[in-house]
Amino acid sequence: MDDFGAQLKDLRTRYGMTQADLARLSDLGQSTISALETGRQNPWPSTRRALSHAFQMSLEEFDAITLGTPPMSTPSRSMGGGRRGFASPWQPAPGFSGGAGEEAETPMGRTPPRSAPAGAADRRAGEATGDYPFAQSKVMQLLNELGDAEQRLEGHEQLIRNLCPVCWITDSTLHLTGAWGLLAEELHPQVADLVGAQVRDFLDAALGAGGPESPLLAVQRKAATGLSVSLPWEHKGRRFIIYIDPVRGSESNITGTVGLAVDITNRQGGPAAR
Fold first, then answer.
1. Stretch 218-240: mean pLDDT, rounded?
2. How far apart are CA 40 and CA 214, in angstroms?
3. Are 163 and 262 in contact (CB under 8 A)?
4. HEC states along 93-106?
5. pLDDT classification of 225: cutoffs 50, 70, 90
6. Taking 80 as the threshold, does the pLDDT of residue 260 lie above it?
7. First to last CA, the chain
8. What is the third-level CATH fold of 4-131?
9. How far apart are CA 201 and CA 210, in angstroms?
10. Sequence spans of domains, the chain
């Protein structure tokens, strides 16, 4: 690999590219291109692949030129050719066959480097038509990661719905200002219609609170005085831990309560009540 830097620089020159041009097309830093050409950085496979895309050639073709490795026996794309009809602004100088260290000769002598490449607008046009495979690959990778994240999010949402089947919020007079969760939906499909109901009626219907003397209603009232409370609860063969906390306003005055029921039926040991 001692000659890699020299061969890369020669290839870049024959294509009429500056180090900055090659850095943009390969999605590498200009400092990386400089380090590769001077031998200060090794050409790892991922780096060589990005560079081969920039030159519009296969990795095997690129390695054959820069490393002197024989190409694979299977036919590959022609060097500098336009994929799917794309006319790349980056072309080797006339007479350049792609061999490592070859001179491009014409009847008038050695061919000078090509003129400056086409502008950024042309490169963006090429990318828009999918002619930069490394860009396509990155987009597909991001889309796949997004799909995986959405699936995980859906799983987390379902887990939360199962673990916390009902939540509620009240004002300082213990009337509902909001409720959600599976148990709330079972009480009324339009959960918003529960707003304004007395919390004792809601708890009795959702969790079998058992009337005005219910321990659950008692801790609800404690929360309205400023205490954070909890207690274990059982209803219809299911075990819960009920948590109720006060809600405070900007001046630390109590404006209501918030409560939730955590289903611990299928857990070996639930969280201890406070």
1. 91
2. 77
3. yes
4. CCCCCCCCCCCCEE
5. very high
6. yes
7. 68
8. 434 Repressor (Amino-terminal Domain) (1.10.260)
9. 9
10. 4-131, 164-263
pLDDT band at residue 95, thresholds of 50, 70 and 90? low
Residue with tokens 């006339």: 94
Instruction: Please check the confidence at residue 153 and state whether its pLDDT lies above 70.
Output: yes
Q: Compute the average pLDDT of residues 184-188.
A: 74
In terms of C-beta density within 10 A (0-12 exposed, 13-18 middle, 19 or more buried), how is residue 212 classed? exposed
Cα distances (angstroms) measured from residue 264 to each of 83, 158, 159, 269: 59, 15, 12, 8
Q: What is the CA radius of gyration of the chain?
A: 35
Phi/psi of residue 169, each to 5°? -130, 140
> Residue 109: what pLDDT?
42
Q: Tell the residue number behind the tokens 């963006």, with chain if given.
A: 124
What is the model's pLDDT at position 223?
A: 93
Is the separation of the CB atoms in 249 and 236 below 8 Å? no
How many other C-beta atoms are found inside a 10 Å radius of the C-beta of residue 55?
A: 27
Q: Do domains 4-131 and 164-263 have the same CATH topology?
A: no
Q: Looking at domain 164-263, does it have CATH number 3.20.20.70?
A: no
- Strands, E, within the chain: which ranges? 105-106, 109-110, 166-171, 176-180, 229-235, 238-248, 254-263
Query: Residue 19 and residue 12: Cα distance in Å, rounded?
Result: 8
Q: pLDDT tens for residues 108-119?
A: 344 444 444 444
- What amino acid is encoded at 211 in this protein? G
pTM for the whole thing?
0.42
Helices (H), 100-214: 120-128, 133-163, 182-187, 199-207
